Amino acid sequence: MYIGEQLINPTDSRLRLSAQLGCKGIVIDTRPNTAVIGEDGLWDAGKVAAQRRWIESHGMRLEGMALDVGSILLDSLRAPEKAAAKAKELRRNIQAAADGGVDMVKYTVAMVGITRTGEVEGRGGMRCSTFKAEEYRAENDARFSYWGTVLPDDEDARAGGAAETCGQVMASQAGGVSEADGWRAIEYLVEALLPTAEKAGVKLACHPHDPAYPPGGLNGVHHVLGSLDGLKRFVALAPESKSLGFNFCQGTIAEMSRNPTETVLEAIRTFGPQNRIFMVHFRNIRGGYLDFREAMPDEGSVDMAACIRAYREVGYKGVLCPDHVPFSDVDPDRERFFSFCLGYTQALLQAA
């Protein structure tokens, strides 16, 4: 295991900082990733290779890139021709990643973004996103949720429907997604992409639904990958595949339970031996199911040292990336906060 970062539109100086902090791997989370898009609007293998070599020139590995699935999940339910056209593009992008020397792409099954309902003050006055199911309101969703790569405080991008919102909408705008619909959409995506990924030798790293929704959903939208049972059903879609697995977001899995440490450890010990953990978002929360806030890794409810030991026990050898750190006016780009997370994680690795 080793530390790495998930970055959006990094510069040379930002990559130098990652290398100086000890990172061994980088995941490009840029959506849309204009640096690798060719004249036809799709990923170009030569440009993918150039991005990979650029990361390698800083002494790090390009672990993977974000595959922007856009609104394909909702479209598979309501606009099948649009979904089919998008699936064709995504298959081309997966092949371009392989041809450019990148063996993993990550994607999210979030149709309605990452739902949050508010913000609370953390230590020293940092601002922490929260989700309290009982406080869900459409206006809170609009103000505090994450959509695509758009952060909660970027009101202009959200209001303008920027490409960076990645086709995600509020739950109140989705028109309802039943459990059956949720599974039908996910199965559509897996069936559309997995054969190409398997043939190309590319791992598809799925980010589960964040957060787990209450029974009955929110505004009729169900988060079917919001429980361990849901994650188990997901991998059962292709039980022998080496390409179907997880962008294993530890914080998201902690949000599924009122006993977050126990649930995260169970998930690691379930999916680690199956080689379904392709990358890790090594992050913490304070609280649990239906009532939590985002937290720095040392102050949350999950025993992070126990998680490191569990990853080692199951033989995980990949990257650990910080994610969803709180916000602060004194660290607007959050570089110091992410640096703290990386140092904390590296110390845990050494201590273990």
TrEMBL record:
Its cofactor is Fe(2+); Mn(2+). Pathway: Carbohydrate metabolism; pentose and glucuronate interconversion. InterPro entries: Man_deHydtase, Xyl_isomerase-like_sf. It catalyses: D-mannonate = 2-dehydro-3-deoxy-D-gluconate + H2O. GO terms for biological process: D-glucuronate catabolic process. GO terms for molecular function: ferrous iron binding; manganese ion binding; mannonate dehydratase activity. Its EC number is 4.2.1.8. Keywords: Iron, Lyase, Manganese, Plasmid. It is an enzyme of class 4 (lyase). PANTHER family: MANNONATE DEHYDRATASE. Belongs to the mannonate dehydratase family. Catalyzes the dehydration of D-mannonate. This is mannonate dehydratase. It comes from Azospirillum humicireducens.
